[in-house]
Amino acid sequence: MSSDLLNIAASGVRAARAGLDVTSQNIANAATEGYVRRTLRQSEVALAGGYGRVGDLSLSGVRIDGLQRNADMFRQAEVRRTGGDAARAASELNTWQNVEAALEQARVFPALTQFENALQRLATDPVDPSLRTAVLEDARTLTRTFGIAANGLDTVAAGLQFDAAAGVGQVNLFAGQLAQLNVQLARATPGSSDQVSLLDRRDALLANLSDYADISASFAADQTVTVRIGGSAGPVMVSGNSAGTLSSTTAPDGTISFALGASPVTLSSGTLAAAQQGLVMVRDTRISLDTVADALIATANGAQATGVALDGTPGQPMFSGSGAAGIALALTSGSQLATAPAGAPASSRDPANLVAMRAAFDTADISGQASGLLFQVASATQGRKLTSEALDSIASGAKLALDSQAGVNLDEEAVNLVRFQQAFQASSKAIQVASDMFDTLLAIR
Description:
alpha+beta; three-stranded antiparallel sheet; 10 helices; rod-shaped
Protein backbone atom coordinates (compact mmCIF):
# COMPACT_ATOMS: atom_id res chain seq x y z
CA MET A 1 0.00 0.00 0.00
CA SER A 2 2.84 2.38 0.87
CA SER A 3 4.37 1.53 -2.53
CA ASP A 4 1.13 2.49 -4.29
CA LEU A 5 0.97 5.70 -2.29
CA LEU A 6 4.56 6.47 -3.19
CA ASN A 7 3.93 5.91 -6.90
CA ILE A 8 0.77 8.03 -6.82
CA ALA A 9 2.55 10.84 -4.97
CA ALA A 10 5.53 10.67 -7.32
CA SER A 11 3.25 11.02 -10.34
CA GLY A 12 1.63 14.01 -8.64
CA VAL A 13 5.03 15.62 -8.12
CA ARG A 14 5.91 15.10 -11.78
CA ALA A 15 2.57 16.55 -12.92
CA ALA A 16 2.86 19.55 -10.59
CA ARG A 17 6.44 20.16 -11.73
CA ALA A 18 5.36 19.97 -15.36
CA GLY A 19 2.51 22.38 -14.61
CA LEU A 20 4.98 24.82 -13.06
CA ASP A 21 7.23 24.53 -16.11
CA VAL A 22 4.35 25.19 -18.52
CA THR A 23 3.11 28.13 -16.46
CA SER A 24 6.61 29.61 -16.31
CA GLN A 25 6.91 29.20 -20.09
CA ASN A 26 3.64 31.06 -20.56
CA ILE A 27 4.76 33.90 -18.31
CA ALA A 28 8.15 34.17 -20.02
CA ASN A 29 6.49 34.43 -23.46
CA ALA A 30 3.63 36.72 -22.49
CA ALA A 31 4.96 39.41 -24.83
CA THR A 32 6.21 37.08 -27.56
CA GLU A 33 4.44 37.77 -30.85
CA GLY A 34 2.57 34.71 -32.11
CA TYR A 35 2.94 32.72 -28.90
CA VAL A 36 -0.18 30.76 -27.96
CA ARG A 37 -0.82 29.93 -24.32
CA ARG A 38 -0.19 26.29 -23.39
CA THR A 39 -2.01 24.15 -20.88
CA LEU A 40 -0.95 20.79 -19.53
CA ARG A 41 -3.15 17.85 -20.51
CA GLN A 42 -3.25 15.15 -17.85
CA SER A 43 -5.51 12.27 -16.95
CA GLU A 44 -6.09 9.89 -14.07
CA VAL A 45 -4.37 6.51 -14.14
CA ALA A 46 -6.74 3.82 -12.85
CA LEU A 47 -6.17 0.16 -13.73
CA ALA A 48 -8.20 -2.91 -12.88
CA GLY A 49 -6.93 -5.11 -10.03
CA GLY A 50 -3.89 -4.67 -7.83
CA TYR A 51 -3.21 -3.50 -4.34
CA GLY A 52 -4.88 -0.38 -3.08
CA ARG A 53 -7.90 -0.96 -5.25
CA VAL A 54 -11.15 0.83 -4.60
CA GLY A 55 -13.93 -1.42 -5.81
CA ASP A 56 -12.43 -3.10 -8.85
CA LEU A 57 -9.94 -0.31 -9.65
CA SER A 58 -6.33 0.18 -8.69
CA LEU A 59 -5.46 3.84 -8.12
CA SER A 60 -2.17 4.65 -9.84
CA GLY A 61 -1.93 8.45 -9.84
CA VAL A 62 -1.85 10.88 -12.75
CA ARG A 63 -0.45 10.70 -16.28
CA ILE A 64 0.86 13.63 -18.35
CA ASP A 65 -0.75 13.40 -21.78
CA GLY A 66 1.03 16.37 -23.34
CA LEU A 67 0.61 20.06 -24.09
CA GLN A 68 -2.42 21.77 -25.55
CA ARG A 69 -2.43 25.12 -27.34
CA ASN A 70 -5.35 27.36 -26.47
CA ALA A 71 -5.89 28.25 -30.12
CA ASP A 72 -9.22 28.74 -31.86
CA MET A 73 -8.97 27.97 -35.58
CA PHE A 74 -12.06 30.04 -36.38
CA ARG A 75 -10.71 33.10 -34.59
CA GLN A 76 -7.33 32.65 -36.23
CA ALA A 77 -9.00 32.53 -39.64
CA GLU A 78 -10.91 35.72 -38.77
CA VAL A 79 -7.69 37.45 -37.79
CA ARG A 80 -6.13 36.45 -41.10
CA ARG A 81 -9.16 37.58 -43.10
CA THR A 82 -9.68 40.91 -41.35
CA GLY A 83 -5.94 41.55 -41.19
CA GLY A 84 -5.64 41.06 -44.95
CA ASP A 85 -8.54 43.43 -45.59
CA ALA A 86 -7.01 46.04 -43.29
CA ALA A 87 -3.59 45.67 -44.94
CA ARG A 88 -5.10 46.20 -48.38
CA ALA A 89 -7.09 49.25 -47.24
CA ALA A 90 -4.06 50.83 -45.57
CA SER A 91 -1.92 50.26 -48.65
CA GLU A 92 -4.59 51.65 -50.97
CA LEU A 93 -4.94 54.73 -48.76
CA ASN A 94 -1.19 55.29 -48.95
CA THR A 95 -1.34 55.07 -52.75
CA TRP A 96 -4.20 57.57 -53.01
CA GLN A 97 -2.38 59.95 -50.69
CA ASN A 98 0.74 59.72 -52.86
CA VAL A 99 -1.27 60.37 -56.02
CA GLU A 100 -3.01 63.32 -54.41
CA ALA A 101 0.34 64.73 -53.31
CA ALA A 102 1.81 64.27 -56.80
CA LEU A 103 -1.01 66.27 -58.40
CA GLU A 104 -1.23 68.97 -55.75
CA GLN A 105 2.52 69.56 -55.57
CA ALA A 106 2.69 69.91 -59.36
CA ARG A 107 0.13 72.77 -59.14
CA VAL A 108 -1.41 72.12 -62.55
CA PHE A 109 -4.70 73.82 -61.71
CA PRO A 110 -3.11 77.06 -60.38
CA ALA A 111 -0.86 77.16 -63.46
CA LEU A 112 -3.88 76.79 -65.75
CA THR A 113 -5.67 79.59 -63.94
CA GLN A 114 -2.60 81.81 -64.18
CA PHE A 115 -2.25 81.11 -67.90
CA GLU A 116 -5.89 81.94 -68.61
CA ASN A 117 -5.60 85.14 -66.55
CA ALA A 118 -2.54 86.14 -68.59
CA LEU A 119 -4.58 85.70 -71.78
CA GLN A 120 -7.29 87.92 -70.31
CA ARG A 121 -4.77 90.67 -69.48
CA LEU A 122 -3.29 90.45 -72.98
CA ALA A 123 -6.73 91.20 -74.44
CA THR A 124 -6.55 94.71 -72.94
CA ASP A 125 -3.47 95.56 -75.06
CA PRO A 126 -2.67 92.85 -77.65
CA VAL A 127 0.51 94.53 -78.90
CA ASP A 128 2.15 95.04 -75.48
CA PRO A 129 5.37 92.96 -75.61
CA SER A 130 5.52 92.50 -71.82
CA LEU A 131 2.00 91.07 -71.75
CA ARG A 132 2.84 88.76 -74.64
CA THR A 133 6.01 87.59 -72.87
CA ALA A 134 4.00 86.97 -69.69
CA VAL A 135 1.58 84.72 -71.60
CA LEU A 136 4.49 82.80 -73.10
CA GLU A 137 6.20 82.29 -69.74
CA ASP A 138 2.98 81.21 -68.07
CA ALA A 139 2.46 78.72 -70.90
CA ARG A 140 5.99 77.40 -70.35
CA THR A 141 5.33 77.06 -66.62
CA LEU A 142 2.10 75.23 -67.38
CA THR A 143 3.88 72.63 -69.50
CA ARG A 144 6.37 72.09 -66.70
CA THR A 145 3.62 71.48 -64.15
CA PHE A 146 2.13 68.80 -66.39
CA GLY A 147 5.56 67.18 -66.65
CA ILE A 148 6.03 67.31 -62.88
CA ALA A 149 2.62 65.72 -62.32
CA ALA A 150 3.37 62.98 -64.85
CA ASN A 151 6.75 62.26 -63.24
CA GLY A 152 5.09 62.17 -59.82
CA LEU A 153 2.58 59.59 -61.00
CA ASP A 154 5.37 57.57 -62.62
CA THR A 155 7.19 57.58 -59.28
CA VAL A 156 4.08 56.32 -57.50
CA ALA A 157 3.68 53.56 -60.09
CA ALA A 158 7.34 52.56 -59.81
CA GLY A 159 6.97 52.34 -56.04
CA LEU A 160 3.93 50.10 -56.37
CA GLN A 161 5.71 47.83 -58.83
CA PHE A 162 8.66 47.58 -56.46
CA ASP A 163 6.35 46.79 -53.54
CA ALA A 164 4.57 44.14 -55.61
CA ALA A 165 7.85 42.48 -56.58
CA ALA A 166 9.01 42.51 -52.95
CA GLY A 167 5.63 41.17 -51.82
CA VAL A 168 5.77 38.31 -54.31
CA GLY A 169 9.20 37.43 -52.94
CA GLN A 170 7.87 37.41 -49.38
CA VAL A 171 4.90 35.23 -50.33
CA ASN A 172 7.20 32.69 -51.94
CA LEU A 173 9.49 32.79 -48.89
CA PHE A 174 6.62 32.15 -46.48
CA ALA A 175 5.23 29.39 -48.69
CA GLY A 176 8.60 27.64 -48.74
CA GLN A 177 8.89 27.90 -44.96
CA LEU A 178 5.40 26.44 -44.54
CA ALA A 179 6.33 23.48 -46.72
CA GLN A 180 9.40 22.87 -44.55
CA LEU A 181 7.27 23.13 -41.41
CA ASN A 182 4.88 20.55 -42.84
CA VAL A 183 7.74 18.06 -42.95
CA GLN A 184 8.60 18.76 -39.32
CA LEU A 185 4.97 18.66 -38.20
CA ALA A 186 4.42 15.30 -39.85
CA ARG A 187 7.27 13.89 -37.75
CA ALA A 188 6.44 15.66 -34.47
CA THR A 189 4.91 13.79 -31.55
CA PRO A 190 1.35 14.99 -30.85
CA GLY A 191 1.19 17.14 -27.72
CA SER A 192 4.95 17.54 -27.48
CA SER A 193 6.66 20.86 -26.87
CA ASP A 194 8.24 20.56 -30.31
CA GLN A 195 4.85 20.24 -31.97
CA VAL A 196 3.25 23.19 -30.19
CA SER A 197 6.25 25.37 -31.04
CA LEU A 198 5.97 24.33 -34.68
CA LEU A 199 2.26 25.12 -34.63
CA ASP A 200 3.01 28.62 -33.33
CA ARG A 201 5.42 29.14 -36.22
CA ARG A 202 2.90 27.71 -38.69
CA ASP A 203 0.14 30.06 -37.57
CA ALA A 204 2.51 33.04 -37.54
CA LEU A 205 3.54 32.28 -41.13
CA LEU A 206 -0.10 32.00 -42.19
CA ALA A 207 -0.82 35.36 -40.58
CA ASN A 208 2.17 36.94 -42.35
CA LEU A 209 1.10 35.40 -45.65
CA SER A 210 -2.44 36.78 -45.31
CA ASP A 211 -1.03 40.31 -45.02
CA TYR A 212 0.11 39.98 -48.64
CA ALA A 213 -2.65 37.89 -50.22
CA ASP A 214 -5.95 36.28 -49.36
CA ILE A 215 -5.38 32.62 -48.57
CA SER A 216 -7.43 29.59 -47.62
CA ALA A 217 -5.85 27.14 -45.17
CA SER A 218 -6.96 23.57 -44.43
CA PHE A 219 -5.37 21.33 -41.83
CA ALA A 220 -4.72 17.58 -41.77
CA ALA A 221 -4.87 15.34 -38.71
CA ASP A 222 -1.10 15.64 -38.27
CA GLN A 223 -1.50 19.46 -38.28
CA THR A 224 0.17 19.93 -41.67
CA VAL A 225 -1.42 22.69 -43.72
CA THR A 226 -2.57 23.04 -47.32
CA VAL A 227 -2.71 26.62 -48.56
CA ARG A 228 -4.63 28.01 -51.52
CA ILE A 229 -3.85 31.53 -52.71
CA GLY A 230 -6.60 33.78 -53.97
CA GLY A 231 -9.22 32.31 -51.64
CA SER A 232 -10.74 28.85 -51.39
CA ALA A 233 -11.16 28.62 -55.18
CA GLY A 234 -7.56 29.62 -55.91
CA PRO A 235 -4.72 27.29 -56.90
CA VAL A 236 -2.87 25.29 -54.25
CA MET A 237 0.35 27.00 -53.22
CA VAL A 238 1.46 24.76 -50.34
CA SER A 239 0.76 21.06 -50.06
CA GLY A 240 2.85 18.72 -47.98
CA ASN A 241 6.52 19.42 -48.50
CA SER A 242 6.05 21.26 -51.81
CA ALA A 243 5.39 24.95 -52.44
CA GLY A 244 4.47 26.69 -55.67
CA THR A 245 6.04 29.91 -56.93
CA LEU A 246 3.98 33.06 -57.32
CA SER A 247 4.98 35.38 -60.17
CA SER A 248 3.91 38.77 -61.44
CA THR A 249 3.73 40.13 -64.98
CA THR A 250 3.78 43.82 -65.90
CA ALA A 251 1.61 44.94 -68.81
CA PRO A 252 2.60 47.77 -71.20
CA ASP A 253 0.29 50.16 -69.34
CA GLY A 254 2.12 49.47 -66.07
CA THR A 255 -0.52 47.30 -64.43
CA ILE A 256 0.36 43.87 -63.06
CA SER A 257 -1.17 40.40 -62.90
CA PHE A 258 -0.29 37.38 -60.79
CA ALA A 259 0.02 33.68 -61.55
CA LEU A 260 0.99 30.50 -59.74
CA GLY A 261 2.73 28.48 -62.38
CA ALA A 262 0.32 28.51 -65.32
CA SER A 263 -2.72 29.31 -63.15
CA PRO A 264 -3.83 32.95 -62.94
CA VAL A 265 -4.33 34.26 -59.40
CA THR A 266 -7.04 36.77 -58.53
CA LEU A 267 -6.40 38.54 -55.23
CA SER A 268 -9.01 40.40 -53.20
CA SER A 269 -7.12 41.30 -50.03
CA GLY A 270 -3.61 41.94 -48.80
CA THR A 271 -0.97 44.38 -49.95
CA LEU A 272 -0.46 42.62 -53.29
CA ALA A 273 -4.11 43.19 -54.17
CA ALA A 274 -3.66 46.82 -53.12
CA ALA A 275 -0.60 47.22 -55.35
CA GLN A 276 -2.45 45.66 -58.27
CA GLN A 277 -5.46 47.93 -57.82
CA GLY A 278 -3.22 50.92 -57.10
CA LEU A 279 -1.47 50.56 -60.44
CA VAL A 280 -4.85 50.50 -62.18
CA MET A 281 -5.80 53.67 -60.35
CA VAL A 282 -2.51 55.40 -61.22
CA ARG A 283 -2.98 54.41 -64.87
CA ASP A 284 -6.51 55.83 -64.92
CA THR A 285 -5.36 59.03 -63.22
CA ARG A 286 -2.57 59.38 -65.75
CA ILE A 287 -5.07 58.93 -68.58
CA SER A 288 -7.24 61.68 -67.10
CA LEU A 289 -4.22 63.97 -66.73
CA ASP A 290 -3.18 63.25 -70.33
CA THR A 291 -6.72 64.09 -71.42
CA VAL A 292 -6.45 67.52 -69.78
CA ALA A 293 -3.05 68.14 -71.41
CA ASP A 294 -4.29 67.03 -74.83
CA ALA A 295 -7.36 69.27 -74.49
CA LEU A 296 -5.07 72.21 -73.74
CA ILE A 297 -2.89 71.43 -76.75
CA ALA A 298 -5.84 71.01 -79.12
CA THR A 299 -7.66 74.13 -77.90
CA ALA A 300 -4.65 76.45 -77.95
CA ASN A 301 -3.30 75.18 -81.27
CA GLY A 302 -6.75 75.30 -82.86
CA ALA A 303 -7.17 78.94 -81.85
CA GLN A 304 -3.68 79.82 -83.06
CA ALA A 305 -4.48 78.37 -86.49
CA THR A 306 -7.42 80.76 -87.02
CA GLY A 307 -5.49 83.99 -86.33
CA VAL A 308 -2.35 85.88 -87.23
CA ALA A 309 0.75 86.76 -85.24
CA LEU A 310 1.95 90.28 -84.51
CA ASP A 311 3.81 90.42 -87.85
CA GLY A 312 0.68 89.38 -89.76
CA THR A 313 1.81 85.83 -90.55
CA PRO A 314 -0.53 82.86 -89.88
CA GLY A 315 -0.50 81.58 -86.31
CA GLN A 316 1.67 78.60 -85.47
CA PRO A 317 0.95 75.86 -82.90
CA MET A 318 1.48 77.05 -79.34
CA PHE A 319 2.23 73.60 -77.93
CA SER A 320 3.92 70.48 -79.26
CA GLY A 321 3.86 66.86 -78.14
CA SER A 322 1.01 65.01 -76.48
CA GLY A 323 0.01 63.96 -73.01
CA ALA A 324 1.18 65.33 -69.69
CA ALA A 325 4.73 64.02 -70.10
CA GLY A 326 5.10 65.12 -73.73
CA ILE A 327 3.58 68.60 -73.79
CA ALA A 328 6.07 71.38 -74.55
CA LEU A 329 5.96 75.03 -75.56
CA ALA A 330 6.43 75.36 -79.34
CA LEU A 331 6.46 79.17 -79.60
CA THR A 332 9.75 80.94 -79.02
CA SER A 333 8.54 84.55 -78.90
CA GLY A 334 5.53 86.40 -77.56
CA SER A 335 5.12 88.04 -80.97
CA GLN A 336 4.04 84.65 -82.34
CA LEU A 337 0.80 84.70 -80.34
CA ALA A 338 -2.06 84.92 -82.85
CA THR A 339 -4.23 87.54 -81.15
CA ALA A 340 -5.70 89.12 -84.30
CA PRO A 341 -8.14 87.42 -86.69
CA ALA A 342 -7.03 86.05 -90.06
CA GLY A 343 -6.47 88.81 -92.63
CA ALA A 344 -5.62 91.46 -90.05
CA PRO A 345 -2.57 93.63 -90.76
CA ALA A 346 0.66 93.49 -88.79
CA SER A 347 0.60 95.03 -85.30
CA SER A 348 -3.17 94.84 -85.28
CA ARG A 349 -4.85 95.71 -81.99
CA ASP A 350 -7.89 93.66 -82.89
CA PRO A 351 -8.09 90.95 -80.17
CA ALA A 352 -10.85 88.98 -81.89
CA ASN A 353 -8.82 85.80 -82.22
CA LEU A 354 -7.57 86.08 -78.64
CA VAL A 355 -11.17 86.48 -77.47
CA ALA A 356 -12.09 83.41 -79.50
CA MET A 357 -9.21 81.50 -77.89
CA ARG A 358 -10.44 82.39 -74.42
CA ALA A 359 -13.97 81.37 -75.41
CA ALA A 360 -12.61 78.04 -76.66
CA PHE A 361 -10.90 77.51 -73.32
CA ASP A 362 -14.18 78.23 -71.55
CA THR A 363 -16.02 75.77 -73.80
CA ALA A 364 -13.42 73.04 -73.30
CA ASP A 365 -13.45 73.80 -69.56
CA ILE A 366 -9.85 72.72 -69.21
CA SER A 367 -9.52 74.29 -65.77
CA GLY A 368 -12.72 72.51 -64.78
CA GLN A 369 -11.29 69.19 -65.97
CA ALA A 370 -8.14 69.73 -63.93
CA SER A 371 -10.12 70.81 -60.89
CA GLY A 372 -12.46 67.84 -61.30
CA LEU A 373 -9.52 65.43 -61.42
CA LEU A 374 -8.12 66.88 -58.20
CA PHE A 375 -11.53 66.70 -56.54
CA GLN A 376 -12.00 63.09 -57.65
CA VAL A 377 -8.65 62.06 -56.21
CA ALA A 378 -9.22 63.99 -52.97
CA SER A 379 -12.67 62.43 -52.54
CA ALA A 380 -11.31 58.95 -53.21
CA THR A 381 -8.51 59.55 -50.70
CA GLN A 382 -10.97 60.61 -48.02
CA GLY A 383 -13.17 57.60 -48.78
CA ARG A 384 -10.22 55.23 -48.52
CA LYS A 385 -9.25 56.83 -45.23
CA LEU A 386 -12.66 56.12 -43.73
CA THR A 387 -12.60 52.58 -45.11
CA SER A 388 -9.12 51.96 -43.76
CA GLU A 389 -10.07 53.19 -40.29
CA ALA A 390 -13.17 50.99 -40.25
CA LEU A 391 -11.35 47.85 -41.42
CA ASP A 392 -8.47 48.50 -39.03
CA SER A 393 -10.98 48.68 -36.18
CA ILE A 394 -12.55 45.38 -37.27
CA ALA A 395 -9.12 43.73 -37.52
CA SER A 396 -8.19 45.02 -34.06
CA GLY A 397 -11.41 43.57 -32.66
CA ALA A 398 -10.68 40.17 -34.20
CA LYS A 399 -7.14 40.28 -32.81
CA LEU A 400 -8.42 41.14 -29.33
CA ALA A 401 -10.92 38.27 -29.50
CA LEU A 402 -8.11 35.86 -30.38
CA ASP A 403 -5.77 37.24 -27.74
CA SER A 404 -8.42 36.89 -25.06
CA GLN A 405 -8.51 33.16 -25.77
CA ALA A 406 -5.01 32.38 -27.00
CA GLY A 407 -2.96 35.06 -25.28
CA VAL A 408 -1.27 34.81 -21.91
CA ASN A 409 -3.20 36.26 -18.97
CA LEU A 410 -0.63 37.01 -16.30
CA ASP A 411 -3.23 37.07 -13.53
CA GLU A 412 -4.39 33.57 -14.44
CA GLU A 413 -0.83 32.33 -14.69
CA ALA A 414 -0.04 33.76 -11.25
CA VAL A 415 -2.96 31.78 -9.84
CA ASN A 416 -1.71 28.67 -11.65
CA LEU A 417 1.73 29.11 -10.13
CA VAL A 418 0.24 29.04 -6.64
CA ARG A 419 -2.02 26.11 -7.51
CA PHE A 420 0.78 23.97 -8.95
CA GLN A 421 3.12 24.95 -6.13
CA GLN A 422 0.57 23.79 -3.58
CA ALA A 423 0.02 20.57 -5.53
CA PHE A 424 3.77 20.01 -5.61
CA GLN A 425 4.00 20.53 -1.85
CA ALA A 426 1.03 18.26 -1.18
CA SER A 427 2.45 15.46 -3.35
CA SER A 428 5.81 15.85 -1.66
CA LYS A 429 4.05 15.54 1.68
CA ALA A 430 2.35 12.36 0.43
CA ILE A 431 5.78 10.95 -0.42
CA GLN A 432 6.87 11.70 3.12
CA VAL A 433 3.76 9.95 4.49
CA ALA A 434 4.50 6.91 2.30
CA SER A 435 8.05 6.86 3.60
CA ASP A 436 6.83 7.06 7.20
CA MET A 437 4.37 4.22 6.58
CA PHE A 438 7.14 2.09 5.09
CA ASP A 439 9.37 2.78 8.09
CA THR A 440 6.52 1.81 10.42
CA LEU A 441 6.04 -1.49 8.59
CA LEU A 442 9.75 -2.24 8.82
CA ALA A 443 9.66 -1.58 12.54
CA ILE A 444 7.00 -4.28 13.16
CA ARG A 445 8.55 -7.41 14.67
